[in-house]
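REVIEWER CHECKLIST
Item 1: Sequence provided? yes
Item 2: Single chain? yes
Item 3: Sequence as submitted:
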Amino acid sequence: MSAQPDRATAQFRWHGLDQQGHRQTGQIQALNADLARVQLRRQGLQQVQVQRLWWSPPDTVKAKDLAVMTRQWSAMLRAGVPVVQALGMLCRSMSAKGLVAVMQQVRSDVESGVALHVALAKHPKLFSGLYVHMVQAGEAAGILDTMMERLSLTLEKNEAMRSKIRSALMYPIAVMVVALGILVLILVLVVPVFQDVFQSFGAELPLATQMVVGLSDALVRAWPAALPLGFLLMWAKHPNHPAANRLRQWLARWWLRWPVLGPLLTTAVVARWAQTLSALLAAGVPLPEALGPTAQACDHPVFERTTLQLKRQVEQGHSLSDCLTQSGRFPAMMVQLCATGEETGALDSLLGRAGSLMESALDDQVNGLSSLLEPLIIVVLGGFIGAILVAMYLPIFSLGQVF
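Item 4: Structure as written out by the authors:
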């Protein structure tokens, strides 16, 4: 019943004056223009004007923006600012339009008497299970400021790990894309020209040249298949289709099998898994209940599925360490620390220690990968391009010897 109003809401652009007389503008979702004005007046805005937007591009919210907002929110709560007032200050200070629109709805819900974690849970695309559970724990225990501090720290650590992976892979991927693009252009545009010249002489081509010409012909004939492949990859992002889920699972397992990239991805995901589960357990969330948000926070199809299997096994009475061993996805150090934490009752702190150790291992792997990939890519791609050029000029050398 709660999903029906969301489908009926419309997007409005608004202009108005805040309590200091400064002109403010933004976007808000509401059932109609009158309700949009009411929500804005509740936030202390005056001389409000709203205009419906019949179409607007989707506002994407970056994980970094969410982490920054959570840190600011935590600081306000630490300073004794009430929740509703802090939400209003956040809405006026943030620059991410999508995040501002969502937080305005959250503030409106909280003002109408809805619990904060319930208001956040209405926006699952932005606020994960980790976020909602930690806010709920903070509200129940009366330590919302402390929980928001822990939550902001967890989000910042997760974003830092994603940033390390992106920075380590950005340069090699850019070089490979440019080099492969040049190779494809050579094979599709340049090699056929040489092939026509060679055929006019009627001489037999060397084996290396025949292989390059065959590769060029294969690319020319196969390029129409690239369009359906692109549509297939875009369709794989469909969140609910079973076939798309199976395709994402297969691609994720395929990446994990790579010699260097696989261990790097595993280390990053396991570190994020340990830090998320540690934060939830420290907030007082029971282990079976905490594994659900942890699976969502993995942001990896293989480990998400594995964590949901762990949840079912733990609910049946199995220990977490035994389940980790049976999954085969987690390193021995993680399993040992989990076993020790279960025996001593300090599972949350030992999982946090395991996450820190995995993060240090990730730093070492990223540094080693950066120093290894750059010369390796240059040597491999340079050798490949050189081999193609030599293969193209071999017939010319042979004709020169004949004449």
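Item 5: Key structural point noted by reviewer: Residues 157-403 form a domain with the Receptor-associated Protein fold (CATH 1.20.81.30).
Item 6: Recommendation: ____
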